[in-house]
Amino acid sequence: MDHATDPASPATASPGDPLALFEAWMAEAAAGEPNDPNAMCLATVDAEGRPSARMVLLKGLDARGFVFYTNLESRKGEELAANPNAALCFHWKSLRRQVRIEGPVEAVTPDEADAYYASRPRGSRIGAWASRQSRPLTSRAELEAAVAEMEARFPEESVPRPAHWSGFRLLPQRLEFWRDMPFRLHERQVFHRLAAGWRTEVLFP
Ligand SMILES: Cc1cc2nc3c(=O)[nH]c(=O)nc-3n(C[C@H](O)[C@H](O)[C@H](O)COP(=O)(O)O)c2cc1C
């Protein structure tokens, strides 16, 4: 296909709006990836500037940014509280595409976190209470005992959201759309946020 008219090309689809382009790519991924098309690698840094990365799930997206949920006392939660600068990376293997997103995070509102928490299965809501995410676990039995304790504490269907469990919204300052092309002459289009709108540039592969 002629590259300039290929609707999947970042240069063709929504040239001025990276979030619309992201949504178009995500819709294609959702239709084709075998599982978790919304999985993304989240990178944070510690107090010494040392990076760490792990997968999380994208659970919300609007013009403000990219939302994920986690335990605020986890390693990532502590790191983001101390340094809000973060990066996300999506890789859709079957599409051979990558999207990189960078910017600071902000906390989602308690109402947003409550709404998403309430949408999760009861077992996941109990798990959020039982798991001291990222801290040492002596045995699987310790975790199972914590789950049993929380099931007894919250016998009703309704389980309140723990104060230590909420979400972050990454406010994109830079997005890069990468698309596989023959002979590794890949296509890379970058969007930099301006006071109003976006500046775009294309990079050598
Ligand atoms: C596909 C996938 C999706 C995941 N989604 C989440 C998520 O949305 N939130 C979360 O806290 N952990 C998620 N995890 C687990 C994290 O990768 C990680 O193990 C955990 O959050 C602890 O990370 P930390 O010690 O760096 O804080 C996911 C793991 C995988 C493989």
UniProtKB/TrEMBL annotation:
Cofactor note: Binds 1 FMN per subunit.
Gene3D superfamilies the record matches: Electron Transport, Fmn-binding Protein, Chain A
Residues reported to bind FMN: 54-59, 69-70, 75-76, 98, 133-134, 178, 188
All copies of domain Pyridoxamine 5'-phosphate oxidase N-terminal, residue ranges: 28-152
UniProt superkingdom: Bacteria
Single Gene Ontology MF annotation: FMN binding
The EC number(s) this enzyme carries: 1.4.3.5
Keywords per UniProt: Flavoprotein, FMN, Oxidoreductase, Pyridoxine biosynthesis
Record carries keyword Flavoprotein: yes
Catalytic class of the enzyme: oxidoreductase
Sequence ranges assigned to domain Pyridoxine 5'-phosphate oxidase dimerisation C-terminal in this UniProt record: 165-205
Pathway assignment: Cofactor metabolism; pyridoxal 5'-phosphate salvage; pyridoxal 5'-phosphate from pyridoxine 5'-phosphate: step 1/1; Cofactor metabolism; pyridoxal 5'-phosphate salvage; pyridoxal 5'-phosphate from pyridoxamine 5'-phosphate: step 1/1
Biological processes, Gene Ontology terms: pyridoxine biosynthetic process
Catalytic activity: pyridoxine 5'-phosphate + O2 = pyridoxal 5'-phosphate + H2O2; pyridoxamine 5'-phosphate + O2 + H2O = pyridoxal 5'-phosphate + H2O2 + NH4(+)
Cofactor(s) needed by this chain: FMN
Binding site for substrate: 59, 116, 120, 124, 184-186
Cross-referenced PANTHER family: PYRIDOXINE-5'-PHOSPHATE OXIDASE, PYRIDOXINE-5-PHOSPHATE OXIDASE
Function: Catalyzes the oxidation of either pyridoxine 5'-phosphate (PNP) or pyridoxamine 5'-phosphate (PMP) into pyridoxal 5'-phosphate (PLP).
Subunit structure: Homodimer.
Family: Belongs to the pyridoxamine 5'-phosphate oxidase family.
The name this protein goes by in its record: Pyridoxine/pyridoxamine 5'-phosphate oxidase
Organism, as annotated: Roseomonas acroporae
